[in-house]
Amino acid sequence: MYARALFEAARDGGRLEVVQQELSEFVEAVRQVPELRALLRDPQLDPRAKISALKEILAGADEFVRNFILLLTERGRATELEETRLEFDRLVAAETGRLSLELATAVELSDEEAYRIVEQIEKSSGRTVDATRRVDPDLLGGIVLQVGSLRLDASLRGRLERLRRELRNGGTQGSPVGPLLNTSLRSGDSRAAPGQSPAPRTETKRSSQHSKTEEKP
């Protein structure tokens, strides 16, 4: 709701590009600056002091961006800022025919590595891609693509989490990662994604009547 309201206001005002850029920069600043993150997320802070501080920080920002961030903060939704920005990017992409995405990896990609990934996504989607890059060591390895509210997870952490769920459920399930991500990770050979070692292969034999591992006497 909030993302669409900002999108429509920026579009009608002819400032989509400016608003998208400044909103993205502010979200990145929240990630990088602990004090700013605490200002937005600490529920113990006096709301009036929080708004006053934000007005100073955003004094030179675009009017739409400034008023939008202040509105989210006043309504206690500042923690939804990043999610709202991603949805805003998705709306802009749909409007302009471009695909905006965030590329998260466990280690910093070289420009060449990032270019190859983006190139594959452009070939798969048939659209021009605007990609931002982010390093998240918690991913352990692999890659995560965020396109609007859609998250495509091929990270090592994501695979481990899926494996845990499969073990709890007593069986294996199909991967939820879509064809776009699988295609984007291919570079013409079977190498692992940047920052990730090839996964070992395991084979389990099952009987024809029961889903139990066969054991030799």
How would you characterize this protein structure?
- The protein has 217 residues and is an alpha+beta fold.
- The chain has two domains: 2-87; 98-185, no CATH class.
- The chain has helices spanning 2-12, 16-32, 34-41, 47-57, 63-74, 81-96, 111-125, 156-169, 179-185, and strands at 98-105, 128-135, 142-147, 150-155.
- A four-stranded mixed β-sheet has the order 2-1-3-4.
- Helix 7 (111-125) links the parallel strand 1 and strand 2 (128-135).
- The N and C termini lie far apart (63 Å).
Task: Please describe the topology of this protein.
Blueprint: H1 2-12, H2 16-32, H3 34-41, H4 47-57, H5 63-74, H6 81-96, E1 98-105, H7 111-125, E2 128-135, E3 142-147, E4 150-155, H8 156-169, H9 179-185
Parallel strand pairs: 1-2
Antiparallel strand pairs: 1-3, 3-4
Helix pairs in contact: 1-5, 1-6, 2-3, 2-6, 4-5, 7-9
